[in-house]
Design brief:
The protein has 406 residues and is α/β, with parallel strands linked by helices. It has 2 domains: 269 residues, TIM Barrel; 57 residues, no CATH class. Helix content is 38%, strand content 20%. It has 15 helices and 17 strands. Strands 9-10-8-7-6-5-4-3-11 form a 9-stranded mixed β-sheet, sandwiched between helices. Strands 1, 2, 12, 13 and 14 form a 5-stranded antiparallel β-sheet that branches. α3 links the parallel β4 and β5. α2 runs parallel beside α3, α3 runs parallel beside α4 and α7 packs parallel to α9. The chain is globular and about 60 Å long. The N terminus is likely disordered. The structure holds iron/sulfur cluster. The site of iron/sulfur cluster (SF4) has 11 residues, from loops.
Length: 406
Amino acid sequence: MTDLTLSIAGQPPAAANRAASARADAVIPWSLANWRGLYAHVPFCRHKCHYCDFYSFVDREDRGAAYTDRLLAECAALRPRVRRPLETIFVGGGTPTMLPPADLERALLAIAGLAQLGPSGEFSVEANPETVTDEIAAILVRCGVNRISIGCQSFQPSLLVALERHHDPASVARAVGILRRAGITNINLDLIFAVPTSRLEQWQDDLNRALELEPQHISCYGLVYEPNTPLATRLARGEVQRIDEVTEGRMYEHTRAMLAERGYEHYEISNWARPGRRCQHNLLYWRNADWLALGPSASGHAGGVRWKNVPRLADWLNSSPWSMVQDVEALEAEPSAGEQFMLGLRLIDGLDTPDLERLLAMPGGARRRAVIDRLCRGGLLQSDAAGLRIMPSQLMVADSLISELL
Ligand code: SF4
Protein backbone atom coordinates (compact mmCIF):
# COMPACT_ATOMS: atom_id res chain seq x y z
CA MET A 1 0.00 0.00 0.00
CA THR A 2 1.57 3.29 -1.03
CA ASP A 3 -0.84 5.74 0.49
CA LEU A 4 0.98 6.30 3.72
CA THR A 5 4.39 6.95 2.37
CA LEU A 6 6.64 9.75 1.44
CA SER A 7 10.36 9.32 1.34
CA ILE A 8 11.80 9.83 4.79
CA ALA A 9 13.77 12.69 3.42
CA GLY A 10 10.42 14.03 2.25
CA GLN A 11 11.44 14.57 -1.34
CA PRO A 12 8.22 14.62 -3.35
CA PRO A 13 7.85 13.21 -6.86
CA ALA A 14 7.33 15.34 -9.95
CA ALA A 15 6.43 15.07 -13.64
CA ALA A 16 6.61 16.75 -17.08
CA ASN A 17 8.95 18.65 -19.41
CA ARG A 18 12.11 16.72 -18.69
CA ALA A 19 15.40 18.14 -19.91
CA ALA A 20 18.81 16.52 -20.25
CA SER A 21 21.41 16.94 -17.54
CA ALA A 22 22.89 20.38 -16.96
CA ARG A 23 24.75 22.32 -14.31
CA ALA A 24 22.63 23.38 -11.36
CA ASP A 25 23.56 27.04 -11.73
CA ALA A 26 22.25 27.01 -15.31
CA VAL A 27 18.97 25.33 -14.37
CA ILE A 28 17.89 27.13 -11.21
CA PRO A 29 15.59 30.10 -11.93
CA TRP A 30 17.49 32.37 -9.59
CA SER A 31 15.34 35.46 -10.11
CA LEU A 32 12.14 33.52 -9.24
CA ALA A 33 13.51 31.64 -6.26
CA ASN A 34 12.28 32.43 -2.79
CA TRP A 35 14.53 30.07 -0.83
CA ARG A 36 13.05 28.88 2.43
CA GLY A 37 14.75 25.53 3.05
CA LEU A 38 17.79 23.44 2.23
CA TYR A 39 18.05 19.68 1.86
CA ALA A 40 21.49 18.02 1.96
CA HIS A 41 21.89 14.34 1.15
CA VAL A 42 24.63 12.19 2.68
CA PRO A 43 24.59 8.83 0.89
CA PHE A 44 26.65 6.65 3.23
CA CYS A 45 25.15 3.75 5.22
CA ARG A 46 26.52 0.95 7.30
CA HIS A 47 24.36 -1.57 5.50
CA LYS A 48 21.99 -1.34 2.56
CA CYS A 49 18.55 -2.34 3.86
CA HIS A 50 16.67 -4.44 1.33
CA TYR A 51 13.53 -2.28 1.26
CA CYS A 52 15.38 0.99 0.71
CA ASP A 53 15.28 2.85 -2.60
CA PHE A 54 17.05 6.00 -1.45
CA TYR A 55 20.45 6.68 -2.96
CA SER A 56 22.57 5.17 -0.21
CA PHE A 57 25.32 2.59 -0.07
CA VAL A 58 28.17 1.13 1.94
CA ASP A 59 31.22 3.13 0.89
CA ARG A 60 34.26 0.89 0.56
CA GLU A 61 36.47 3.81 -0.50
CA ASP A 62 36.23 6.08 2.54
CA ARG A 63 35.04 9.07 0.55
CA GLY A 64 33.67 11.00 3.54
CA ALA A 65 36.38 13.66 3.28
CA ALA A 66 36.01 13.96 -0.50
CA TYR A 67 32.24 14.25 -0.09
CA THR A 68 32.69 17.01 2.48
CA ASP A 69 35.24 18.94 0.39
CA ARG A 70 32.83 18.86 -2.53
CA LEU A 71 29.92 19.98 -0.35
CA LEU A 72 31.95 22.89 0.98
CA ALA A 73 32.79 23.96 -2.57
CA GLU A 74 29.11 24.08 -3.50
CA CYS A 75 28.19 25.95 -0.33
CA ALA A 76 30.82 28.57 -1.25
CA ALA A 77 29.49 28.82 -4.81
CA LEU A 78 25.92 29.21 -3.58
CA ARG A 79 26.72 31.67 -0.84
CA PRO A 80 26.47 34.90 -2.94
CA ARG A 81 23.13 33.73 -4.33
CA VAL A 82 21.41 32.97 -1.03
CA ARG A 83 20.92 36.45 0.29
CA ARG A 84 18.32 35.93 3.00
CA PRO A 85 18.32 33.56 5.97
CA LEU A 86 16.50 30.27 5.37
CA GLU A 87 13.89 28.77 7.69
CA THR A 88 14.88 25.11 7.67
CA ILE A 89 17.73 22.71 6.98
CA PHE A 90 17.27 18.97 6.66
CA VAL A 91 20.35 16.75 6.38
CA GLY A 92 19.19 13.29 5.38
CA GLY A 93 20.41 10.22 3.64
CA GLY A 94 21.72 7.68 3.88
CA THR A 95 23.01 8.11 7.37
CA PRO A 96 24.55 11.57 7.88
CA THR A 97 25.95 10.55 11.27
CA MET A 98 28.06 7.93 9.46
CA LEU A 99 30.39 10.68 8.24
CA PRO A 100 33.69 10.73 10.13
CA PRO A 101 33.20 13.19 13.02
CA ALA A 102 35.58 15.84 11.67
CA ASP A 103 33.89 15.71 8.27
CA LEU A 104 30.44 15.79 9.83
CA GLU A 105 31.38 18.96 11.69
CA ARG A 106 32.87 20.59 8.58
CA ALA A 107 29.80 19.73 6.53
CA LEU A 108 27.28 20.92 9.10
CA LEU A 109 29.13 24.19 9.72
CA ALA A 110 29.26 24.91 5.99
CA ILE A 111 25.56 24.16 5.59
CA ALA A 112 24.70 26.28 8.64
CA GLY A 113 26.83 29.13 7.26
CA LEU A 114 25.01 28.98 3.94
CA ALA A 115 21.52 28.84 5.46
CA GLN A 116 22.02 31.41 8.27
CA LEU A 117 18.97 30.19 10.15
CA GLY A 118 17.33 32.66 12.49
CA PRO A 119 16.51 31.86 16.13
CA SER A 120 13.32 30.03 15.16
CA GLY A 121 15.00 28.06 12.37
CA GLU A 122 14.75 24.28 12.31
CA PHE A 123 17.98 22.33 11.67
CA SER A 124 17.25 18.59 11.39
CA VAL A 125 19.68 15.73 10.93
CA GLU A 126 18.76 12.08 10.39
CA ALA A 127 20.57 9.50 12.49
CA ASN A 128 20.47 5.79 12.97
CA PRO A 129 20.41 4.95 16.66
CA GLU A 130 23.66 3.00 16.75
CA THR A 131 25.61 5.95 15.29
CA VAL A 132 24.68 8.38 18.06
CA THR A 133 27.56 8.87 20.49
CA ASP A 134 28.46 11.64 22.94
CA GLU A 135 31.01 12.90 20.43
CA ILE A 136 28.49 13.03 17.56
CA ALA A 137 25.85 14.66 19.77
CA ALA A 138 28.33 17.35 20.85
CA ILE A 139 29.17 18.07 17.20
CA LEU A 140 25.51 18.34 16.30
CA VAL A 141 24.90 20.84 19.09
CA ARG A 142 28.03 22.86 18.27
CA CYS A 143 26.84 23.18 14.68
CA GLY A 144 23.39 24.42 15.68
CA VAL A 145 21.40 21.26 14.98
CA ASN A 146 18.19 21.41 17.02
CA ARG A 147 16.16 18.44 15.75
CA ILE A 148 17.11 14.82 15.21
CA SER A 149 15.14 12.23 13.30
CA ILE A 150 16.01 8.73 14.46
CA GLY A 151 15.52 5.72 12.19
CA CYS A 152 13.97 3.49 14.82
CA GLN A 153 11.57 1.50 12.56
CA SER A 154 10.63 -1.18 15.12
CA PHE A 155 11.40 -2.39 18.62
CA GLN A 156 10.75 -6.03 17.69
CA PRO A 157 14.02 -7.89 17.04
CA SER A 158 12.33 -10.24 14.57
CA LEU A 159 10.87 -7.34 12.58
CA LEU A 160 14.17 -5.49 12.55
CA VAL A 161 15.64 -8.64 11.02
CA ALA A 162 12.79 -8.72 8.49
CA LEU A 163 13.68 -5.13 7.54
CA GLU A 164 17.42 -5.89 7.54
CA ARG A 165 17.92 -3.25 10.20
CA HIS A 166 20.65 -4.41 12.49
CA HIS A 167 20.45 -2.13 15.50
CA ASP A 168 19.63 -3.32 18.96
CA PRO A 169 16.18 -1.95 19.98
CA ALA A 170 17.76 -0.72 23.22
CA SER A 171 20.02 1.57 21.19
CA VAL A 172 17.06 3.87 20.44
CA ALA A 173 16.57 4.80 24.10
CA ARG A 174 20.34 5.13 24.47
CA ALA A 175 20.48 7.53 21.49
CA VAL A 176 17.56 9.59 22.77
CA GLY A 177 19.25 9.88 26.18
CA ILE A 178 22.57 10.98 24.67
CA LEU A 179 20.90 13.59 22.49
CA ARG A 180 18.78 15.00 25.31
CA ARG A 181 21.77 15.23 27.65
CA ALA A 182 23.63 17.11 24.91
CA GLY A 183 20.76 19.60 24.67
CA ILE A 184 18.73 18.41 21.68
CA THR A 185 15.14 18.31 22.82
CA ASN A 186 13.25 18.03 19.52
CA ILE A 187 13.34 14.37 18.50
CA ASN A 188 11.47 12.43 15.85
CA LEU A 189 11.18 8.66 15.77
CA ASP A 190 10.55 6.96 12.43
CA LEU A 191 8.54 3.75 12.64
CA ILE A 192 7.49 1.29 9.93
CA PHE A 193 4.34 -0.81 10.12
CA ALA A 194 2.92 -3.59 7.95
CA VAL A 195 6.28 -5.39 7.95
CA PRO A 196 6.04 -9.01 6.71
CA THR A 197 4.96 -11.37 9.52
CA SER A 198 4.04 -8.46 11.82
CA ARG A 199 0.94 -8.65 14.00
CA LEU A 200 -1.24 -5.86 15.39
CA GLU A 201 -0.03 -6.55 18.94
CA GLN A 202 3.57 -6.06 17.85
CA TRP A 203 2.71 -2.73 16.26
CA GLN A 204 0.88 -1.68 19.43
CA ASP A 205 3.99 -2.58 21.38
CA ASP A 206 6.15 -0.56 18.97
CA LEU A 207 3.97 2.49 19.50
CA ASN A 208 4.01 2.03 23.28
CA ARG A 209 7.77 1.73 23.36
CA ALA A 210 8.17 4.79 21.15
CA LEU A 211 5.79 6.77 23.38
CA GLU A 212 7.75 5.79 26.49
CA LEU A 213 10.62 7.82 25.02
CA GLU A 214 8.37 10.89 24.77
CA PRO A 215 9.47 12.04 21.31
CA GLN A 216 8.21 15.39 20.07
CA HIS A 217 7.34 13.90 16.68
CA ILE A 218 6.51 10.45 15.33
CA SER A 219 6.46 9.36 11.68
CA CYS A 220 4.70 6.07 10.90
CA TYR A 221 5.15 4.71 7.39
CA GLY A 222 3.48 1.68 5.89
CA LEU A 223 6.15 -0.54 4.36
CA VAL A 224 6.34 -0.07 0.60
CA TYR A 225 7.71 -2.70 -1.77
CA GLU A 226 9.55 -0.21 -3.95
CA PRO A 227 10.29 -1.41 -7.48
CA ASN A 228 13.81 -2.68 -8.10
CA THR A 229 14.61 -3.25 -4.46
CA PRO A 230 15.74 -6.67 -3.20
CA LEU A 231 12.63 -6.79 -1.03
CA ALA A 232 10.37 -6.39 -4.09
CA THR A 233 12.29 -9.21 -5.77
CA ARG A 234 11.76 -11.41 -2.71
CA LEU A 235 8.08 -10.58 -2.78
CA ALA A 236 7.84 -11.51 -6.45
CA ARG A 237 9.61 -14.81 -5.75
CA GLY A 238 7.21 -15.59 -2.92
CA GLU A 239 9.96 -15.49 -0.30
CA VAL A 240 8.10 -12.85 1.72
CA GLN A 241 4.37 -12.14 2.00
CA ARG A 242 2.63 -8.82 2.45
CA ILE A 243 0.48 -8.63 5.50
CA ASP A 244 -3.20 -8.40 4.62
CA GLU A 245 -4.82 -5.02 4.03
CA VAL A 246 -7.32 -5.42 6.84
CA THR A 247 -4.54 -5.83 9.39
CA GLU A 248 -2.61 -2.94 7.85
CA GLY A 249 -5.71 -0.77 8.07
CA ARG A 250 -6.17 -1.72 11.72
CA MET A 251 -2.56 -0.80 12.42
CA TYR A 252 -3.07 2.62 10.90
CA GLU A 253 -6.37 3.25 12.70
CA HIS A 254 -4.81 2.13 15.96
CA THR A 255 -1.95 4.58 15.36
CA ARG A 256 -4.37 7.44 14.83
CA ALA A 257 -6.37 6.65 17.92
CA MET A 258 -3.43 5.99 20.21
CA LEU A 259 -1.37 9.01 19.22
CA ALA A 260 -4.39 11.31 19.48
CA GLU A 261 -5.08 9.96 22.96
CA ARG A 262 -1.49 10.73 23.92
CA GLY A 263 -1.65 14.34 22.72
CA TYR A 264 -0.02 14.09 19.31
CA GLU A 265 -1.53 16.11 16.49
CA HIS A 266 -2.02 14.17 13.27
CA TYR A 267 -0.98 16.77 10.70
CA GLU A 268 0.05 14.74 7.65
CA ILE A 269 -0.93 11.26 6.50
CA SER A 270 2.18 9.68 8.07
CA ASN A 271 3.17 12.30 10.64
CA TRP A 272 2.19 13.23 14.19
CA ALA A 273 3.62 15.94 16.43
CA ARG A 274 3.31 17.49 19.83
CA PRO A 275 1.75 20.97 19.58
CA GLY A 276 4.27 23.34 18.00
CA ARG A 277 6.57 20.51 16.89
CA ARG A 278 5.45 19.82 13.33
CA CYS A 279 8.37 19.32 10.98
CA GLN A 280 8.76 22.73 9.40
CA HIS A 281 11.03 21.41 6.67
CA ASN A 282 8.63 18.77 5.40
CA LEU A 283 5.84 21.34 5.56
CA LEU A 284 7.81 23.34 2.98
CA TYR A 285 7.59 20.36 0.60
CA TRP A 286 3.88 19.89 1.16
CA ARG A 287 3.29 23.61 0.61
CA ASN A 288 5.30 23.62 -2.60
CA ALA A 289 7.86 26.14 -1.30
CA ASP A 290 11.36 26.65 -2.76
CA TRP A 291 14.31 24.75 -1.34
CA LEU A 292 17.94 24.19 -2.22
CA ALA A 293 19.43 20.75 -2.79
CA LEU A 294 22.96 19.69 -1.90
CA GLY A 295 24.53 16.28 -2.35
CA PRO A 296 24.12 13.41 -4.79
CA SER A 297 20.49 12.60 -5.71
CA ALA A 298 19.07 15.52 -3.69
CA SER A 299 16.06 17.21 -5.33
CA GLY A 300 15.47 20.95 -5.30
CA HIS A 301 12.59 23.20 -6.30
CA ALA A 302 12.31 26.88 -7.17
CA GLY A 303 9.78 28.91 -9.09
CA GLY A 304 7.97 25.86 -10.50
CA VAL A 305 11.20 24.16 -11.64
CA ARG A 306 12.36 20.88 -10.09
CA TRP A 307 15.69 19.21 -10.51
CA LYS A 308 17.67 16.36 -9.07
CA ASN A 309 21.41 16.30 -8.54
CA VAL A 310 23.15 13.44 -10.31
CA PRO A 311 22.77 10.41 -8.09
CA ARG A 312 26.15 8.73 -8.53
CA LEU A 313 28.64 9.89 -5.92
CA ALA A 314 31.58 9.79 -8.37
CA ASP A 315 29.69 11.94 -10.90
CA TRP A 316 28.63 14.38 -8.23
CA LEU A 317 32.18 14.63 -6.86
CA ASN A 318 33.48 15.38 -10.36
CA SER A 319 30.95 18.12 -11.03
CA SER A 320 32.35 20.59 -8.48
CA PRO A 321 31.59 23.33 -7.60
CA TRP A 322 28.10 23.16 -9.13
CA SER A 323 26.19 19.89 -9.11
CA MET A 324 25.32 18.30 -12.40
CA VAL A 325 21.56 17.87 -12.33
CA GLN A 326 19.12 15.65 -14.18
CA ASP A 327 15.35 15.21 -14.32
CA VAL A 328 14.95 18.95 -14.73
CA GLU A 329 11.25 19.71 -14.94
CA ALA A 330 9.41 22.96 -15.49
CA LEU A 331 5.81 22.10 -14.77
CA GLU A 332 3.10 23.53 -17.00
CA ALA A 333 0.23 25.20 -15.15
CA GLU A 334 -2.15 22.22 -15.24
CA PRO A 335 0.20 19.52 -13.92
CA SER A 336 1.58 22.06 -11.45
CA ALA A 337 -1.92 22.56 -10.04
CA GLY A 338 -2.36 18.78 -9.87
CA GLU A 339 0.89 18.43 -7.98
CA GLN A 340 -0.13 21.12 -5.52
CA PHE A 341 -3.38 19.25 -4.91
CA MET A 342 -1.38 16.08 -4.34
CA LEU A 343 0.93 17.74 -1.84
CA GLY A 344 -1.65 19.87 -0.04
CA LEU A 345 -4.14 17.06 0.45
CA ARG A 346 -1.52 14.99 2.25
CA LEU A 347 -1.97 17.45 5.10
CA ILE A 348 -4.79 16.59 7.47
CA ASP A 349 -5.99 20.20 7.33
CA GLY A 350 -5.89 19.96 3.53
CA LEU A 351 -5.97 23.03 1.33
CA ASP A 352 -7.33 26.26 2.75
CA THR A 353 -9.98 28.14 0.77
CA PRO A 354 -7.69 30.77 -0.82
CA ASP A 355 -5.28 28.05 -2.00
CA LEU A 356 -8.15 25.88 -3.22
CA GLU A 357 -9.66 28.74 -5.23
CA ARG A 358 -6.25 29.68 -6.62
CA LEU A 359 -5.69 26.10 -7.82
CA LEU A 360 -9.18 25.80 -9.25
CA ALA A 361 -8.59 29.00 -11.23
CA MET A 362 -5.65 27.34 -12.97
CA PRO A 363 -6.00 25.28 -16.18
CA GLY A 364 -7.92 22.07 -15.50
CA GLY A 365 -9.90 23.77 -12.74
CA ALA A 366 -13.35 22.96 -14.15
CA ARG A 367 -12.52 19.26 -14.46
CA ARG A 368 -11.09 19.18 -10.95
CA ARG A 369 -14.06 21.00 -9.49
CA ALA A 370 -16.33 18.30 -10.92
CA VAL A 371 -14.11 15.56 -9.45
CA ILE A 372 -14.09 17.30 -6.06
CA ASP A 373 -17.90 17.62 -6.08
CA ARG A 374 -18.22 13.91 -6.87
CA LEU A 375 -15.75 12.87 -4.17
CA CYS A 376 -17.45 15.12 -1.62
CA ARG A 377 -20.87 13.67 -2.47
CA GLY A 378 -19.37 10.20 -2.01
CA GLY A 379 -18.09 11.13 1.45
CA LEU A 380 -14.43 10.76 0.44
CA LEU A 381 -13.46 14.43 0.58
CA GLN A 382 -14.80 17.09 2.89
CA SER A 383 -15.31 20.69 1.83
CA ASP A 384 -16.42 23.61 4.00
CA ALA A 385 -15.68 27.28 4.56
CA ALA A 386 -12.18 26.45 5.79
CA GLY A 387 -11.16 24.50 2.67
CA LEU A 388 -10.87 20.97 1.32
CA ARG A 389 -9.47 17.87 2.97
CA ILE A 390 -9.57 14.09 2.83
CA MET A 391 -12.12 12.52 5.17
CA PRO A 392 -10.23 10.92 8.07
CA SER A 393 -11.77 7.53 7.29
CA GLN A 394 -10.29 7.71 3.77
CA LEU A 395 -6.68 8.53 4.66
CA MET A 396 -5.64 4.94 3.99
CA VAL A 397 -6.62 5.37 0.33
CA ALA A 398 -5.42 8.94 -0.03
CA ASP A 399 -3.21 8.18 -3.03
CA SER A 400 -6.03 6.89 -5.16
CA LEU A 401 -8.23 9.87 -4.25
CA ILE A 402 -5.46 12.35 -4.95
CA SER A 403 -4.62 10.67 -8.26
CA GLU A 404 -8.04 11.68 -9.55
CA LEU A 405 -7.02 15.31 -9.15
CA LEU A 406 -3.63 15.10 -10.85
S1 SF4 B 1 19.73 2.97 6.90
FE1 SF4 B 1 18.08 4.15 5.89
S2 SF4 B 1 19.03 5.11 4.10
FE2 SF4 B 1 20.44 3.51 4.83
S3 SF4 B 1 19.94 1.74 3.59
FE3 SF4 B 1 18.75 1.55 5.48
S4 SF4 B 1 16.78 2.55 5.03
FE4 SF4 B 1 18.22 3.16 3.42
